[in-house]
Amino acid sequence: xxxxxxAVTGSTGLIGAALTRSLRADGHDVVRLVRRQPxxxxxxAWDPRRQKVDAAGLVGCDAVVHLAGxxxxxxxxxxxxxxxxxxxxxxxxxxxxxxxASLDTPPRVFVCGSAVGFxxxxxxxxxxxxxxxxTGFLPRMCVxxxxxAHPAAEAGVRTVFARTGLVVAREGGAWGRLFxxxxxxxxxxxxxxxxxxxxxSLHDHVAALRHLIDTEDLSGPVNLTAPEPVTNREVTAAMGxxxxxxxxxxxxxxxxxxxxxxMAGDVLGSQRVxxxxxxxxxxxxxxxxxxxxxxxxxxx
Length: 300
What we know:
Layout: E1 5-9, H1 14-25, E2 29-34, E3 43-47, E4 52-53, E5 63-66, H2 79-102, E6 109-115, E7 126-127, H3 137-147, H4 150-154, E8 158-164, E9 166-168, H5 173-183, E10 188-190, E11 196-197, E12 199-201, H6 202-214, E13 220-224, E14 230-231, H7 232-243, E15 249-251, H8 253-260, H9 264-268, E16 272-273, H10 276-280, H11 290-299
Parallel strand pairs: 1-2, 1-5, 2-3, 5-6, 6-8, 7-16, 8-13, 9-12, 10-15
Antiparallel strand pairs: 3-4, 11-14
């Protein structure tokens, strides 16, 4: 495939940094959108809060991958931080989408981050991209997040929503917090452990994003999760096996609610999300099982 020019937001985050490395390793030209004065030739300024983008920096891009957003689990969910979580995604997406739509020759594809939080708590029921949104803060936010990309789609740009699950990685995200705890032998299930976790290895996540860029007949929502979601109890057992540490502890649900507040509902909630459209489009997972994904993350 010929080298492409690809713009990426969130390029310093866990997924964005890995995607940028992968693209550059294959000879693609990556433009990074930064929320400060650009200091290098590959940087373009944007301000998601003020909905400003230096659209000139997107000229000539074949694709835009939008991954920026405040960390959902970075802080306790106060009303102020919930606004920050939402605004960082909705306002940022609207700004990028409008900048794309303003170009005389827009990119061929806009890959916009989203999340399996769209579906809410699904219990034991498996869901794919055909399922409606759930109820609560995260589903409402995901709906608004995806709707904010409308200007790009209206301009004729193929727009894909990467509904991401829990990324298994040592360097960051939810699993970045789990690894040191389990290495100390302090890991254990959360609540009763029966809630489903829809996971994906960092390697597969990056490969899936690149698949979305390259697959011309894919648009709309695509779940980026491994084919077989597992329960938190199964995650706990797998972490213990792979790291060879006991996983005897458990955090009771009431303690989580005290410690995490409203966010505990999502930690204890169950999401059994299947990647139907990804599989139907021919994508092949390198690490489809939880033990494999954890081993890959542990190796770094």
